[in-house]
Amino acid sequence: MLEFLINLDKDIFLFLNSFHSSFWDVVMYQISGKIIWAPLYLTVAVFIFIKYKLRVGIVIVVFFGLIIAVADLSSVHLFKNVFERLRPCHNPDIQNYVHIVKRCGGQYGFVSSHAANSFAFAVFSLLILKNKFYSFGIIFWATIVAYSRVYLGVHYTADILGGAILGGTISILFFKFYAYIIKKIIK
Fold first, then answer.
1. Pick the CATH number of 36-179 from 3.40.50.720, 1.20.144.10, 3.30.565.10, 1.20.1440.120
2. pLDDT in tens, 26-41
3. Contact (CB, 8 A) for 80 and 109
């Protein structure tokens, strides 16, 4: 059964990775970048400080930092270095069929740190801001960032799904802790 799922994941990856063009290569490479999203992060921070008092806003920003750090570190140390699943661009069985944009990255890919980080940010921010239009938009953004990793040839779809689940789970747990802390501060 596991072998069937691994082969299915390879097939889905190769199918999704096969749709490429020079235009989308540039777009997806930019989407996968980190600095390009700084205005989004800043905008979310501004809305948080508008919605909440300064003290609570600072606590929320600190929680964002903790969540991203935990998502990033756990994706590497609890998953990539434990499962040691080769990235598709390093897998000798399929690497000749993989469309790689720029570079391959580290040797192992399960789970995707980009997916974990973007979904951690998205889920925590939607729990904080509680706006259905924002929630839809930020989940769409996280999904596009995660998909860009498949497009670029550096992650299987299971890597993305695992990263999304990891990031979302971390955010929910931290949100519960945040709610507890805020009750103590407000008292």
1. 1.20.144.10
2. 999 999 988 899 999 9
3. yes
